[in-house]
Design brief:
With about 280 residues, this protein is an all-beta fold. Helices cover about 0% and strands about 40% of the residues. It has two domains: about 5-135, Trefoil (Acidic Fibroblast Growth Factor, subunit A) (Trefoil), CATH 2.80.10.50; about 140-285, Trefoil (Acidic Fibroblast Growth Factor, subunit A), CATH 2.80.10.50.
Length: about 280
């Protein structure tokens, strides 16, 4: 699976899915009733490094204390340089999420209970329905404009829709065509500019400090780490592969054409954005 948002439904009862009690470190991973909980509590990113991250905050991943029966899952801080064995889970294509290092251990719904808040645990594989899951990505995404939170007359965009054009802060009151600052989120976590035939993606040459953003050619078969970004519902646009890096307005300047670049998360005004549409994912009908 690519780095795509998924809901991991309980195979025995699709009203329930793997979720969390809260969006904080050490919060228990539980069975969520999708009819009574917000999507932010049960949508996940399944990464290529086999970690499973909370979609609204990719710095938090599914983890357990050790690989043993009845060990509960909880949210742990993601560190791409130090991924633990307890944090790596692989979907086997046959309804099971198995531990990468010891595939005899799987993700299990304790006691098969289909009730909101039931613990999600580690258990040795036994073929029980409690261990069967259906990850689904039946989602559609909305075109979105990202306005600068400190002054919403400015938005992330480009002066021209051509490859290698710098991505900058645009003053939207200067009669700028909307398609130069409207982005189409893709399921591979790229943001494609509406202008230019939707062939240009928000891109950084590398996920590193002070890398300027530009319009890179979008190739769905060759997406780079510098093209994968996700809005975390808290005001920040984080890199999917390393969510400690975010999209930043250089120097917090409120000037048309100011550089948009990659920066280490620090919570400053320069890193805060407001989407004009709800960037939360919508289930397709």
């Amino acid at each position: 699976m690519s780095v795509t948002p998924y809901t991991i439904f309980c195979a025995a009862n699709s009203q329930f899915a793997i979720g969390v009690k809260d969006r904080i470190v050490n919060s228990p991973v539980i069975l969520c009733d999708t009819k009574s909980n917000k999507e932010e509590r049960y949508q996940w990113l399944i990464r290529e490094d086999n970690t499973i991250a909370l979609r609204v905050d990719p710095t938090l991943i599914l983890d357990t204390a050790k690989l043993a029966d009845y060990q509960t899952f909880y949210l742990s801080v993601y560190n791409s340089q130090k991924i633990l064995d307890t944090q790596k889970w692989v979907y086997d294509g046959d309804k099971h999420f198995r531990n990468e290092g010891n595939p005899n251990f799987v993700i299990d719904n304790q006691g098969r209970a289909t009730s909101n808040g039931n613990p999600i645990i580690v258990h040795a594989y036994n073929g029980s329905p409690a261990q069967e899951w259906n990850p689904k990505s039946d989602l559609k995404l909305k075109p979105t404009r990202f306005f600068y939170a400190a002054n919403k007359r400015f938005a992330i965009g480009a002066k021209r829709a051509i490859a290698n054009q710098p991505v900058v802060l645009l003053d939207t009151r200067n009669n700028v065509p909307r398609d130069l600052y409207e982005w189409i989120p893709q399921e591979d976590n790229t943001f494609v500019l509406s202008a230019g035939g939707q062939t240009l993606a928000l891109t950084a040459a590398g996920v590193a400090q002070q890398q300027s953003m530009y319009l890179g050619v979008y190739d769905p078969n060759n997406v780079t780490a510098g093209q994968q970004w996700i809005y975390d519902d808290n005001g920040y646009i984080r890199n999917v592969q390393d969510p400690t890096f975010v999209i930043d307005n250089k120097g917090s300047s409120q000037t048309d054409g100011n550089t948009i670049w990659v920066y280490k998360f620090n919570g400053s005004d320069a890193e805060q954005w407001v989407p004009t549409t709800d960037l939360s994912l919508e289930k397709s009908t």
